[in-house]
Specification:
- Chain A has helices spanning about 5-30, 90, 155-170, 175-185, 210-235, 245-265, 265-275, 280; strands at about 45-50, 60-70, 75-85, 105-115, 120-130, 135-145, 190, 195, 200-205, 290.
- With about 290 residues, the first copy, chain A, is of the alpha+beta class.
- The termini of chain A are far apart.
């Protein structure tokens, strides 16, 4: 019989394994990119472990921040963390199952890639298991093209990204992809501007179908789908040269990405409220952004 | 006998008059700056009126967004607005005196100047009168040096900025400057980083001493202090040449400014929650910011 501790252990191992494989794949791409378009030497990830401060002598977990600042990957973060302890009282009231007992456990991976070439869309991935008096999976992935012309549902990158996520979801339940794609459209948006952040993907939270094994398999499948499709989009676009006007479009859309992350992002909020590692939480912010 | 309507009218006229004089002064500085350090032609402010959408046919106010993108003033906004109507229910609960009756009236000026030369500090000014079932003044001004070396209490710019604001406050009550300077230190800070946003200034809210005429005079004096001292700081620093490393420091501190405005700024929150003009609310964001 599987205990809750077994499940936590398995989820953590899966997130950390996924991060390792993504990092290896991204380092290969960084090494392989054309020197003509991407001068300089290929970068590697720098991994920095961090711990949450002890609370009354008790360990509260921590994580590893992985950052690469490269020639193809202008700024990419792939982070894992496993944190636990008690949520601050004002925040516990907002977290499912924590209103009476603020103790929580959370493990996850988060990733954001800002690419140098504006023809390669930026991308975000998050996957986490959270335990309070309840337990669930949450996460998502969305594609953020930085050229106006690519911000369309009928662009090949958009189509392929959605199709691959759909395949991952459909194995489990045909209702999940439409539901989680719609949620992504609603969530990854800037209501103050009446704009979408990118072209969407999937977003899910409080995912608990009653079958933990299936839910865990789903979380893993969503991660594999990302690792399968995103490198294909990188390779498709990486040899397209760019100009200053395209970099300016990229900088503008990166500004929108900043607005989303600081105004609305649940992960940013959760991290800052639970005393997470500020440097890794805010590593999602782009290297350069413009508000012309 | 002065009615509430008289007071609203007077406050609005004062804010609009201050904006006009600041704009005239900034345009003079922009015109006068050395062509050697600031090539290109001098810019002028562009003023764009906007209205809040009608609600059930009723006018809800609006404002004028004033923007200049120039050679000395890389990006500066000087905005006035006078808005009224009903606050959204969830927001009304957080606004003093609006928990039972969501009707409000607010008029004010807001200003942020991002200068091209990293030796000239960025600056922010806000002044507003708000009426719910209660009425008060709020506002502040703070100096945001963009070079590490200038982010000190004993830097001449910091000293002169604080001294001038102190003079403005001390006319009314010797307790106000220490109180409002301390509040600025607390408010203009990034708790998630354990950093101050700049070198402070004054911040006040719910200012109502019981003597409206004195409070109005204080709000006006704070605006005059800004208009007196900031152009002096511009002139003191504008002939100092800068290099790429100093621009990089500026871009980093501008990133912090973005974090503050999107995570904590009350005015940004108030504007976005009350359906203000998004373009003028977010015009405070710097032209370029970096998170290296």
């Amino acid at each position: 019989m599987q205990t809750l501790e077994d499940r936590k252990h398995a989820a953590r191992a899966a997130f950390e394994g996924l991060a390792d494989r993504i990092i290896a794949t991204f380092e290969s791409l960084e090494a392989e990119a054309s020197p003509a378009l991407y001068p300089g030497s290929a970068a590697r990830f720098e991994r920095t472990p961090w711990r949450r401060p002890l609370k009354e002598g008790a360990d509260q977990g921590g994580g590893v921040m992985g950052m690469m600042r490269g020639r193809l990957f202008e700024k990419v973060g792939v982070h894992v963390s496993t944190v636990y302890g008690a949520l601050p009282a004002d925040f516990a009231a907002q977290v499912r199952g924590a209103d009476k007992d603020p103790n929580f456990w959370a493990s996850g991976i988060s990733l954001i890639a800002h690419m140098r070439n504006p023809h390669i869309p930026a991308v975000h991935l998050n996957s986490r298991m959270i335990v309070t008096s309840q337990s669930w999976f949450g996460g998502g992935s969305d594609l953020n093209p930085t050229l106006d012309a690519a911000r369309r549902d009928d662009h090949p990158d958009t189509r392929d990204f959605h199709a691959r996520l759909k395949t991952a979801c459909d194995i489990f339940d045909k209702d999940w992809h439409p539901k989680y794609r719609k949620w992504a459209d609603e969530y990854f948006s800037l209501p103050h501007r009446g704009e979408k952040r990118g072209v969407g993907g999937i977003f899910y939270d409080h995912h608990n179908s009653g079958d933990w094994d299936a839910d865990f398999a789903f979380a893993k499948a969503a991660g594999e789908a990302f690792l399968d499709v995103y490198p294909q989009l990188v390779r498709r676009n990486w040899d397209t040269p760019w100009d200053a006007a395209e970099r300016a479009q990229q900088a503008k859309w990166r500004g929108r990405y900043v607005e989303f992350n600081l105004l609305y992002d649940r992960g940013t909020m959760f991290g800052l409220k639970t005393g997470g590692n500020v440097e890794s939480i805010l590593s999602s912010l782009p290297p350069v952004a413009e508000w012309p």
